[in-house]
Amino acid sequence: MSRRLYVFGTGHAMVTRLYNSCFGLEEGGWFFFLDAGGGNGILQAMEAMDVSAARVRGMFLTHTHTDHILGGIWVVRAVGHAILAGEYQGDFCVWGHRELIGAFRQICMAVLAPDILAQLDGRIRLLEVSDGQTCATPFGPTTFFDTGCALVRQFGCAIRAPDGARMAYLGDEPIHPQVYPYVQGCGWLIADALCLEAERQIHHPEHSFHSSVKETCQRAEELGVQRLILCHTEDTHGPLRKALYTREGQKYFHGTLLVPDDREILSLQ
Ligand SMILES: [Zn+2]
Ligand SMILES: [Zn+2]
């Protein structure tokens, strides 16, 4: 069965010409979201890409920064409406580490309507995961792990599909040594690359604990990653970003390098 990655957004927190980084893993018409971006733009992206809330089986949120967690509130709201309308089958699960789930629950309680909140801990389940824990998610056994973020606790995930394919997602965190076991030799890696190395003096990725294209590509090459998807970028290059990032990245990474645009669909075969 074909497996695809819906790229809802590719931008970092403060971009205005892209949506924030978030993805939907799709197989057989069902979706597992990896982060949700920072707001209601997730609903626009879902509609534009023909993804109804009724087809979203679960969501993993990496950390509590605005550009990753707040879109998740809108996803819960949309799924809640689908449940109330009788359009949603089964339970909707949100995975995250303890602090994230605590914060997510508080935001939900503050901003969502009673009919949606009535489904929390019923058909909408908020599931805490610990570092190194493996859970069954819609795409197979998924191991959640601490990415070593210095600013806030952040988890990534490594998914092993039934056919053995391995994918890792690191939120917006550089590839630190503690995640090497999850990233080494993986088939697909989704990773942060805030800007070109050549524009380090403009965007200062080190100030926000992010990476340049060169840094992420070098590390992925060292770790034997097969296919690398760059995201969480600045937005000053418009339609030229793909070519510019690809050109810099291919000097350092010799597997398949992908720099998707917002709303692109990638085949994961
Ligand atoms: Zn962040
Ligand atoms: Zn971010």
Q: Could you give a short description of this structure?
A:
By secondary structure, this protein is an alpha/beta fold. The protein contains 8 helices and 14 strands.
Task: Summarize this structure as a short list of keywords or feature phrases.
269 residues, 7-stranded mixed sheet, 26% strand, binds zinc ion, alpha/beta, 27% helix, globular, 14 strands
Structure description:
By secondary structure, the chain is α/β, with parallel strands linked by helices. The strands form 2 sheets. It has a 7-stranded mixed β-sheet. A 7-stranded mixed β-sheet has the order 7-8-9-10-11-12-13. The longest helix is centred in the N-terminal third of the chain and has 19 residues. The structure holds zinc ion (2 copies). The site of one zinc ion has 3 residues, from loops.
Spans of 5+ residues with little confidence (pLDDT < 50)?
none
Q: From the alpha-carbon coordinates, what is the Rg to the nearest angstrom?
A: 17 Å
> What distance separates the N and C termini?
9 Å
What does the oligomeric state look like here? single chain
